[in-house]
Design a protein that fits this description.
Fumarase C, Chain B, domain 1, Fumarase C, Chain A, domain 2, Ribonucleotide Reductase Protein R1, domain 1, 3 domains, two-stranded parallel sheet, 5% strand, binds arginine
């Protein structure tokens, strides 16, 4: 026999079968079963404390809820779409087990505050896991920065050779980006960590409930202030989607850098075989698919944020069924975040640098031009003039097919008389890197400082 919806009293007719399929949210919210049961057990304990359940009732309800959880864990409980969602499936089962006593659990609450409670509890766990994975990504970047600090490569602006940098500096650039993403994720956690239970359908309840008591039992740090706000609010999910979006944008940029470095044209790195795939036709191919997929999956995460924003945009207070659609974007994002964070630290650990093939790139593009300009500044020439002078030296070298290192002191002095022989030892990339000692610059001494600061950031997080 088809199960009756818990709200069927108001209806003479039954729900169309197509409507049941359309309306159910079990395909997503069934994964809230543990949180739904935890929420009900805390609610039951609070109802007893407030005199709304007897001790016996509370104990029987609590035990039955525990049994239902076991049934679900063992795969013995098949949810029914006629009962729409996780909340009504579990409540119906409770009533099936305990009769009218089970029907008391919904006292002073609604599915509107129940779904908010389940979702927040669920997200707290999932964000916790994301944070843990984000920390291990940070750790793998710090390790790479430490071991690659002595590798020097061209730094780019406009994808043109600009100035030499330490590879440690490059990895640390992403370290700082991801550490800010982690901070944003912690903010998302804090926003999530508030108890919605007891907001009722929208306006609270006439019954004497204690929302602080359920907050404590469920491990929420605080209680939401306004019931209308509570059942209509999903911006804590937006915080998560935003923190995930900025993270994925940063992942996508790192992937793009590595994809470029992996081309024949750059040839800076060898990617680990485990994260590449071949071509079905061209036997020569080794493609950077993991990196491309991460770059590609970024769009889904950013679109998820747009998805939920669009959902919320025109909604009048308070709960509207549109809000049930809040799960798709977040679930998609959780899946992508889990996959990406599962792969990225391993992949980064497996990237092999190719210093020999980086070397010729350091000789192209007059990477030391700014160094010469700044050298002239140290001799008292105003920077704007030095910029022009070195521009002319570059022009001269291009015409003569020479590099800076090939120029004699006399040739240099034709451009500016203040050049002396102390310029010559500066004309190498190692010196160029190490002289950039300004705070946050690429000098290895400063990169070491950054790495130390990075480790203490990490230590504070754990
Ligand atoms: N399945 C619903 C959701 O996920 C639960 C809340 C239903 N509330 C209601 N008034 N129909 O949003």
């Amino acid at each position: 026999m088809q199960k009756k919806a818990l709200w069927s009293g108001r209806f003479a007719g039954s729900t169309a079968e197509k409507m049941q399929q359309f309306s159910q949210s079990l395909d997503t919210d069934w994964s809230f079963f543990r949180e739904d049961i935890a929420g009900s057990r805390a609610h039951g304990a609070m109802l007893f404390k407030m005199g709304l359940l007897s001790k016996e009732e509370q104990e029987k309800i609590d035990h039955a809820l525990w049994e239902i959880e076991q049934e679900i864990e063992k795969g013995e409980f098949e949810p029914d779409i006629a009962l729409e969602d996780v909340h009504m499936n579990i409540e119906s089962r409770l009533i099936e087990k305990l009769g009218p006593m089970g029907a008391k659990i919904h006292t002073g609450r609604s599915r509107n505050d129940q779904v908010a409670t389940d979702y927040r509890l669920f997200m707290k766990k999932r964000i916790h896991e994301v944070l843990r994975q984000q920390k291990s990504l940070l750790e793998s970047l710090l390790k790479r920065a430490e071991s690659d600090i002595d590798i020097i490569l061209p730094g780019f602006t406009h994808l043109q050779h600009a100035q030499p940098i330490s590879l440690g500096h490059f990895w640390m650039a992403y370290f700082w980006k991801y550490s800010r993403d982690l901070t944003r994720m912690m903010t998302a956690f804090d926003q999530t960590d508030q108890n919605p239970l007891g907001a009722g359908a929208l306006a609270g309840t006439t019954l004497p409930i204690d929302r602080h008591c359920t907050a404590q039992a469920l491990g929420f740090s605080s209680v939401t202030e306004n019931s209308l706000d509570t059942v209509s609010d999903r911006d804590y999910l937006l915080e998560f989607l935003f923190a995930s979006s900025t993270f994925m944008l940063h992942v996508s940029r790192l992937c793009e850098d590595l994809i470029l470095w992996n081309t024949q044209e750059f040839d800076f790195i060898e990617l680990p075989d485990g994260y590449c795939t071949g071509s079905s036709m061209m036997p020569n191919k080794k493609n950077p698919d993991a990196l491309e997929l991460m770059r590609g999956k970024t769009s889904g995460v950013v679109a998820s944020m747009q998805d939920l924003m669009m959902n919320l945009k025109g909604l009048p207070l308070t709960y509207n069924r549109d809000l049930q659609e809040d799960k798709r974007p977040v679930f998609l994002t959780l899946k992508t975040m889990g996959e990406v964070l599962g792969i990225l630290p391993d992949l980064l650990g497996g990237v092999q640098m190719k210093p020999d093939s980086i070397q010729p790139h350091l000789e192209k593009g007059f990477l030391l031009a700014t160094d010469v300009a700044e050298y002239l500044v140290s001799k008292g020439v105003p920077f704007r003039e030095t910029h022009h002078i070195v521009g002319q030296v570059v022009q001269y070298c291009l015409a003569e097919k020479k590099d800076f290192q090939d120029l004699s002191l006399e040739e240099w002095r034709q451009f500016n008389a203040s050049v002396e022989k102390d310029l010559l030892p500066l004309l190498n990339v190692e010196a160029a890197v190490d002289r950039r000692k300004s705070f946050g610059g690429t000098a290895r001494s400063d990169v070491k400082r950054q790495i130390e600061a990075g480790w203490s950031v990490l230590a504070r997080l754990t």
